Amino acid sequence: MRSDREKQQRRNDWGIAMLKTIVFTESRTLELWFETFNTFNHAQFDGASSVKSNCTNTTPNEGCGLAANGSVFGQVMSAASPRIAQVAAKFNL
């Protein structure tokens, strides 16, 4: 049986890559890549905060995310990366 910590650390993060090679002549080719990371864009929040923040900024939208009482205890303050896609091309002579 898995511990709670092992369950918490699992990520549902799929990456997909596609490569297409187009041959023009014997020595000239064009390679096209398309890659995605976190392809299905599944929200993966990090664990809730378990300590009081030492941040002195009390404005919620200024990076600290403080609650009305100045604590972030029990709040989810971060998440894994969103979907990322990239395209590349390489021409070989």
Keywords:
single chain; 93 residues; mainly beta; three-stranded antiparallel beta sheet; 1 helix; 3 strands; 6% helix; 29% strand
List the helices and strands and how they pair.
Layout: H1 4-9, E1 15-23, E2 29-37, E3 84-92
Antiparallel strand pairs: 1-2, 2-3
Write up this protein.
With 93 residues, the chain is mainly beta. The protein has one domain. Helices cover 6% and strands 29% of the residues. The protein contains 1 helix and 3 strands; from the N terminus they run H-E-E-E. It has a 3-stranded antiparallel β-sheet, with no helix packed on it. The longest helix is centred in the N-terminal third of the chain and has 6 residues. The protein is rod-shaped.
Poorly predicted runs of 5 or more residues: none
Largest sheet: 3 strands, antiparallel
> Count the strands?
3
Distance between the termini: 55 Å
* Structure annotation, total helices: 1
Percentage of β-strand residues: 25-35%
Please outline what is shown here.
With 93 residues, the protein is mostly beta strands. It is built from 1 helix and 3 strands; from the N terminus they run H-E-E-E. 6% of the residues lie in helices and 29% in strands.
